[in-house]
TrEMBL record:
Entry-linked InterPro entries: AB_hydrolase_fold (IPR029058), AXE1_dom (IPR008391), FrsA_esterase (IPR050261)
Protein name in the entry: Xylan esterase
Statement: the UniProt record of this protein carries the keyword Repressor: no
Natural source organism: Sphingobacterium zhuxiongii
Residues annotated as domain Acetyl xylan esterase: 114-295
Keywords: Signal
Sections of the chain in a coiled coil: none
Taxonomic superkingdom: Bacteria
SUPFAM superfamilies, A to Z: alpha/beta-Hydrolases
Length: 690
């Protein structure tokens, strides 16, 4: 084989470029080489959220362990129900379902009525009602909640369970969750599939927009389930006092919620979902949008509470020993609920658990247990056999004419409904009252609570790890330990001749974004400025880490944001704390009296919050693009890189431009010319000093 000199040259050139980039990255690293004890520093954000979560969960466990009377249990149940409902959020007004039968398919021993209803105004739900022949009316009915199947309830596994329940005399209503089956939110007309890779991404992508406007995906999905029950109880052939709910995987999530919040649910079977948060975080990590309650863990809500809240009503926990939802956590959860159920005396038997050998899957033994459970709990005795069934065809299970409710009925979408809500909020932020609120101590405390910001505590004395020599400057490497336990790495770019002024420079991806290109800072240091470039938690050497989760979209882990959501913390709040702690360190260790704080692009949000909470800076400067919360909500396909800057419920109180208005000494420069940011900054500083 002959290799041309041109190919060899190009290959060597590429290798040289690669090595130069690698060397530059290592030179900018505070922790390389060595620092074995901090080898997992990139996962600092996950580990911080984990330890905070465990603290809350341990407090909860300590309280639950002390419940020894029925009165104490009932008080806990009332409290947990209220907290779960509050975390899910207020449901919309129950308007007319406008339910319509849009098709019917007859089989030998059952029929399927295809039903479309509106869970919210102009928000259509595709569903199928399975009716046994020779039905004893009124009959018990079961809502079947689908897991994360692209086809919704049409999955062969789900159809097998549904048809076996129907053959045993149950009416079954199966409906498509948001983002699945015939309710895709991001439908691609060419591929006839979602533009996203999975249902977890269909759920999670709009969740960030919902959170910014004070809503959440759980609210949408649970309300769909409640409205499905509304439809069932409106029918004369359904016994409204014998309503059951079941589902596996993501359907288990919905079943757990519905069983806890809707008192009409007499029996619920939760399959392949419940474990506990400690084991979940140790194993798979937080799951997609609808599995995370706002401040849920902070309020002491664990998986067991979804069962405890409904005691002594009938509940079956269905598990497999090799499930992705760890079986040890499942057993611990059941054990806790079982102990408390005994306080109800003879009704303790209403809580049961079955497990089998399998992965994240349905098994025959578990299905038999599920059938028997509903037969007893809903007073519908009969044979307990897992029958072989002939599944309906794809065409027979099609509900809407086009196969999507959006195109068939001009259904609205989560994005559009949320935007309508956010547009109303936008009007409220235009008045002087919003500015006055932000200027008040009450407003400041409100934002601190929303972001999870805690009062700044000093960093420990810095640890020196090396330096890089440059022309007319040198770069010294440090890290300091934060009060929370993680480290804060930073580079100190020192000029040969200092003017006594410091620039605290924050970049979206960390310090390497600044020092990776000398043109960014060389003119500034030659003018005597000392530049400090940190890696705030979640960036650079302390993030975002190796964890991706099931909602890893456009190279951003949405799951990390959900982990913070559960404990009432945000990346913005943590980074704001670190910014202020670093400014304090600069004053203590380096006698920095005049500090200019600079932030680029998506790091601007963290700096704005820091300067709003406590402003020790001579100037606050934003470079690049400031993406507002309103812009995120208004843009159907927004940039996922904004996820770390999201603050839940923000638009009910403020947006970033409004926050900037109440910050003293603030300037904003909009430019897409990355290489000139240092030059623009120098001109601005020189202009300000005149």
């Amino acid at each position: 084989m002959k290799i041309s000199y041109r190919s060899l040259y190009c290959g060597m050139l590429a290798m040289v470029i690669f090595l130069n980039v690698t060397v530059a990255q290592q030179e900018g690293s505070v922790l390389a080489p060595g620092w074995f004890m901090h080898r997992d520093a990139p996962n600092s954000l996950y580990e911080h959220y984990y330890h905070q979560s465990i603290n809350y969960l341990n407090q909860r466990k300590s309280t639950v362990d002390k419940i020894n009377t029925l009165a104490e249990l009932q008080a806990w149940q009332v409290k947990k129900k209220e907290q779960i409902k509050k975390a899910i959020g207020e449901f919309p007004k129950a308007e007319s379902l406008n339910a319509k039968q849009v098709g019917k398919v007859n089989f030998a021993d059952y029929s399927i009525e295809h039903i479309v209803f509106e869970s919210r105004k102009n928000f259509f739900v595709s569903s199928s009602l399975y009716l046994p022949k020779n039905l004893k009316k009124p009959a018990p009915a079961i809502v079947y909640c689908s897991g994360h199947s692209e086809t919704g309830y049409r999955s062969d596994t789900y159809q097998h369970v549904i048809l076996n329940l129907v053959k045993k005399g149950f009416i079954v209503l199966a409906f498509d969750p948001v983002g699945q089956g015939e309710r895709l939110q991001y439908f691609d007309p060419q591929s006839k599939k979602s533009k996203f890779a999975s249902p977890t991404q269909e759920h999670s992508y709009p969740s960030i927009q919902l959170l910014a406007a004070g809503d959440n995906m759980i609210n949408y999905m649970v309300w769909d389930g409640i409205r499905a029950i509304d439809y069932l109880v409106s029918r004369k052939d359904v016994d409204s006092k014998r309503i059951g709910v079941t589902g596996r995987s993501g359907g288990g999530t919905q079943s757990a919620y519905l069983g806890a919040v809707d008192d009409r649910v007499k029996a619920v079977a939760i399959e392949n979902y419940l474990t506990n948060f400690e084991r979940l975080y140790q194993n798979k990590g937080p799951q997609d949008a609808e599995q995370n309650l706002n401040s849920g863990i902070k309020q002491g809500i664990d998986h067991a509470d979804f069962m405890i809240a409904r005691l002594p009503k009938a509940t079956l926990l269905v598990a497999t020993r090799n499930d992705i939802f760890n079986i040890q956590g499942t057993r611990e959860t059941f054990s806790e609920a079982e102990r408390l159920s005994k306080l109800y005396g003879g009704q303790a038997a209403n809580l049961s658990m079955v497990e089998d050998d399998a992965g994240h899957a349905s098994t025959k033994n578990n299905r038999l247990a599920l059938y028997a459970f509903f037969q007893q709990a809903l007073a519908n005795p009969g044979n307990v056999v897992d029958e072989e069934v002939t599944l309906p065809t794809e065409e027979q299970l099609k509900v809407s004419p086009t196969g999507q409710v959006n195109s068939s009925y001009q259904s609205s979408s989560v994005f559009r409904l949320n935007k309508q809500n956010a547009d109303k909020l936008k009007e409220n932020l235009r008045g002087q009252a919003s500015l006055d609120f932000l200027k008040s101590s009450q407003g400041k405390q409100q934002l601190k609570d929303m972001t999870g910001f805690v009062s700044m505590k000093p960093l420990q004395s810095p640890v020196y790890t090396g330096r890089i020599l440059g022309k007319g400057y040198n770069i010294e490497k440090f890290f300091s330990y934060t009060d929370a336990g993680y480290i804060l790495p930073y580079l100190l770019i020192k000029p040969e001749k200092t003017n006594g002024k410091f620039i605290l420079w924050l970049a979206e991806q960390g310090k390497q974004d600044v020092v990776g290109k000398e043109d960014n800072f060389v003119n500034l240091v030659h003018q005597g400025y000392t530049i400090v470039c940190p890696d705030l938690i979640g960036t650079g050497e302390v993030g975002p880490g190796t964890y991706k989760g099931d909602a890893f979209i456009n190279n951003v882990s949405y799951n990390l944001a959900y982990m913070g959501l559960q404990i009432g913390q945000t990346t913005v709040g943590l980074q704001a704390n670190d910014i202020l702690a670093l400014a304090d360190l600069l004053k203590r260790e380096y006698a920095a009296e005049a500090i200019v704080a600079v932030a680029q692009d998506n790091s601007i949000a963290s700096l704005l919050h820091a300067a709003y909470f406590e402003n020790p800076f001579q100037q606050v400067i934003a470079l690049g693009k400031l993406t507002t919360y309103q812009e995120i909500v208004d843009t159907e396909y927004y940039d996922s890189n904004v996820v770390p800057s999201i603050v839940p419920n923000a638009l009910n109180y403020y947006d970033l431009p409004l926050l900037a208005k109440v910050i003293d000494r603030y300037s904003f420069i909009s430019t897409n010319q990355e290489s000139l940011k240092g030059e623009y900054l120098l001109k601005l500083l020189q202009a300000k000093s005149k």
